[in-house]
Amino acid sequence: MSLPRTLGELRQSPFSEQRLRSRRVKDELRDNLITKLRETGSVFPGIVGYDDTVVPQIVNAILSRHNFILLGLRGQAKSRILRALTGLLDPQIPYIAGCEIHDNPYAPICRRCRDEIAKHGDQTQIAYLQPDDRYVEKLATPDVTIADLIGDIDPIKAARGGHELSSELTVHYGLLPRANRGIFAINELPDLAGKIQVGLFNIMQEGDVQIKGYPVRLPLDVAMVFSANPEDYTARGKIITPLKDRIGSEVRTHYPATVEEGIAITAQEAWTQRDGYKLHLPKYVQEVIERVAFVAREDKKIDKRSGVSQRLPISATENVISNAERRAIRHAEKTVVPRISDIYAALPAITGKLELEYEGEMKGADHVSRELIRAAIAKTFDDYFSGVDMRQIVQWFDLGGEIKVTESAGAKEVLDSVKGIQGLMEKISALDVSAKDTMESQVSAAEFVLEGLYAHKRIGRTEERVFIAGEKQIKKPERTYEREEPFRNRRPYN
User: Fold this and answer.
1) pLDDT tier at 230 (50, 70, 90 boundaries)?
2) Lowest-pLDDT range, 217-221, 372-376, 395-399?
3) N or C, which end of the chain has less CB nearby within 10 Å?
4) Percent of the chain with pLDDT over 90
């Protein structure tokens, strides 16, 4: 069935005048949400970990026809949730073709559209909006002006059209009017200057905007949503109290509650499907990467007000796979299997995601990140080997055994070396790895066992990644001091 292309055809179509006149955007969101809840129950596909916390609160806000704000630290899917709201809009809605603010054909609010209907009547051309076209997003910055959001008088348009400056036909519409009959989102709301936030009062409460002091009233139909970081209230700006009072619901987001939820998010977002080489990403490697973020969120050397974004494990996973991919290419291995050493090689994807406190700054981002990885390895190791007797492996090192396992070494080279460690290869069965698995998988599992023992300080490891006995230390050159002359031989001070 073809869609109506003129106002006359529209009047004879299912887009009835009564429905389009009375049904506002918030009613549309509410109706489609109710339909979705009845049919599938899934409101935001792809949003993990919020089913029992954040999503019910957003549902309540939409059912209440509220403007709402998502309040949370960085990397908590705030922007993604706001953009997912387009899934609650109709597949298409009609508007007067050529209208900058997508006017309702049955109730136009701009002067141009009223003149167009008066001139052409039922032959007025109709166009259609898709859901994505009805979402307008603005990142709040201190340099945003009222003209950017609301609009301004355009002298050039007035001169070319021969209009008075006070005419509605001279208006250059801002982002908010262009979001008419849709969703308008402002990210990082506290960064918006206070005097600009005042400009949102009318649209929030009365549903209209005024432009440049002229008697131009636009009763817009907009659902407004916002996002903000709690840190921003004191660090860079604040949401002024009258605006906060006009926001219907405040929904607080959070980081994944469990490692499993974090792994699911990372697996969904990280680029893991590489071309050319088969990838096997061991579960214990995923857990270590995810626990780095969990450990960092509890570490006193990390700024808790800033938070640790979920982008950390996502970026780290991509770097870990890339390092393993580089090794596989160099040694012509058929399967890419990341190791724990690849996580240490992914430090560039970790250090930039951490905001350090004073103590952390003194130690340095690299040192803090290595400590986080070691703590994450220890926790993951305990999940797999708690209560397992590792004395045979530790004794092998205590008797003078040493082995070098670098992140760039090929699987065959490392496997030949680790097989000489008594009791090591028998332990990897706890990781669902056996002698029937590929060399790459066996090496990755064996290295995890060694790294776990090192993380618990039962064996040692040098900076060159040589695993040694726990009590051995890297011998540092002795510091020599120049012998001072006896006091009596010194020259007196002048």
Assistant:
1) confident
2) 217-221
3) C
4) 68
DSSP 77-91: SHHHHHHHGGGGS-S
- Residue ending a domain, among 223, 247, 271, is 247
User: Which residue type sits at 330?
Assistant: R
* pLDDT tens, residue by residue, 381-419: 999 999 899 999 999 999 999 999 998 999 999 999 999
pLDDT class of 467 with cuts at 50, 70, 90 = very high
Other CB atoms within 10 A of residue 260 CB:
14
Contacts 24+ apart (CB under 8 A), 55-64: 57/249, 57/251, 58/251, 59/33, 60/249, 61/248, 61/249, 61/251, 62/26, 62/29, 62/30, 62/33, 62/88, 63/30, 63/33, 63/34, 64/248, 64/249
Number of domains in the chain: 2
What number of other Cβ atoms are within 10 A of residue 157's Cβ? 15
Return the number of other C-beta atoms located less than 10 Å from residue 362's C-beta: 11
- Whole-number pLDDT of residue 151: 83
* Tens digits of residue pLDDT in 115-142: 999 999 999 999 999 999 999 999 998 8
DSSP state of 478: P
**Quick one: CA torsion of 32, 38, 43, 45, rounded to 10 degrees?**
-120
pTM: 0.86
Q: Work out whether the CA dihedral 428, 432, 435, 440 comes out positive or negative.
A: negative
- Is 186 found in the same domain as 41? yes
* Sign of the dihedral defined by the CA atoms of residues 114, 119, 121, 124, in that order: negative
As a whole number of angstroms, the distance between CA 413 and CA 291 comes to 29
DSSP 3-state of 207: coil
Domain with 304, as residue range(s), is 259-469
**pLDDT for res 146:** 87
Q: 276-302 burial, b for 16+ CB within 10 Å, e for fewer?
A: eeebebbebbbbbbbbbbbbbeebebb
The answer to whether 94 and 83 are in contact (CB under 8 A) is: no
